[in-house]
Write a structure and sequence with these properties.
There is one protein chain. The protein has 314 residues and is mainly beta. The protein folds into 2 domains: 40-168, Sandwich (Immunoglobulin-like); 173-312, Beta Barrel (Lipocalin), CATH 2.40.128. Helix content is 11%, strand content 44%. The chain contains 2 helices and 22 strands. The strands form 3 sheets. Strands 11, 12, 13, 14, 15, 16, 17, 18, 19, 20, 21 and 22 form a 12-stranded antiparallel β-sheet that branches. The protein is elongated and about 80 Å long. Residues 51-149 form the BT-3987-like N-terminal domain. The chain crosses the membrane at residues 7-25. Keywords: Membrane, Transmembrane, Transmembrane helix. Residues 173-287 form the BT-3044-like C-terminal domain.
């Protein structure tokens, strides 16, 4: 009987202690918003790469983080400047001020109830897209937090960010492909070859690399030796929106010249190109190609730490 009583009182004691701990913990979080000795505002990344996409809205946001509390109970105003002194690399340049508009000239607000605040950056499409440097990632928008009446500290190591801004044309990305090539010599058909990407090889793809706001260099499949496009590179001119005819023209670095050979179209709904083109090999063989390119994925915003956004077909 005594053992039963001891067990009973031990159970009661355990329950009481558990409720006491839960009460104390709940009170510690409810009675105050501070969980650290001081609060701060900072940029999580000091260098960040952004690829804006033509036709998908030329606007990005720079985000700052509020740290030191689990519950932000008021709007917090953080003062910032565009600081050219942050751009020190010889292969980087400051994004011209005429190329963008900031959501506010000097402030970023962290709203009540949030731990992040954002500064809209709206890119001027006309000025930005016609500048060849906008393709390279050379342009940097450097921002520095300088003060805030609403935080205790602004850590020097994280008070700035350098945003590298470049663009992709809308259809930039990796494509599955299939087609047939008819090879002719001396006016007679020599062979008809059917081909496609290797479905079991992840990196067996064609790459449409941005060449301009509406143009691409079509790069051959480096994993498939049977890809007839390995003999050439060509340019593809594509509408920004909707389905339409597309134009094929020679690429200045291609060993052979590629030209349209019939109707070439882009199906926007299915994200598919239907191409007809031809080229002549150095031995005089004329190659006539009928080909489909089907969008697979697009990788953008690749960071120095290896993180990136991978957008798959949808």
């Amino acid at each position: 009987m005594r053992n039963m009583k001891n067990l009973y009182f031990s159970a009661l004691y355990g329950i009481a202690v558990t409720f006491a701990i839960l009460f104390l913990v709940s009170c510690s979080f409810e009675d105050g918003e501070d969980i650290y000795p001081y609060t701060s505002a900072l940029f999580v990344y000091q260098d960040y790469n952004r690829n804006i996409v033509v036709g998908e809205g030329l606007q990005i946001e720079a985000g700052i983080t509020f740290a030191g509390m689990i519950d932000n109970k008021k709007d917090r105003i953080v003062e910032y400047v565009v600081d050219p002194s942050l751009v020190t690399s010889s292969n980087k340049s400051i994004l011209p001020s005429s190329y963008y508009t900031l959501g506010h000239a000097s402030q970023i607000v962290i709203p009540k109830g949030k731990l992040k605040g954002y500064l809209p950056i709206i890119i001027d499409s006309t000025a930005f897209l016609k500048d060849p440097k906008s393709l390279t990632g050379e342009y940097i928008l450097p921002l520095r937090i300088i003060s805030s009446p609403d935080v205790d500290s602004i850590p020097e190591a994280t008070n700035h960010i350098r945003i590298s801004i470049s663009y992709f044309a809308k259809q930039h990305g990796y494509y599955n492909y299939s087609g047939s090539v008819t090879k002719q010599k001396n006016g007679a058909t020599d062979a008809v070859v059917n081909y496609k990407n290797i479905s079991t090889e992840t990196n067996s793809i064609r790459f449409l690399q941005t060449y301009g706001p509406t143009s691409f260099a079509v790069r051959y499949d480096q994993k498939n030796s049977a890809d007839p496009a390995k003999d050439s590179i060509f340019l593809l001119q594509v509408p920004t929106s909707g389905s339409s005819a597309v134009t094929i023209s020679p690429h200045p670095d291609s060993p052979v010249e590629v030209h349209s050979n019939g109707n070439c179209t882009y199906d926007a709904e299915n994200r598919t190109f239907h191409l007809s083109y031809k080229y002549t090999l150095p031995d005089g063989t004329v190659c006539e190609v009928l080909e489909d390119l089907i969008f697979r994925n697009r990788i953008r915003d690749v960071q120095d730490n290896g993180l990136y956004i991978n957008e798959w077909r949808w």
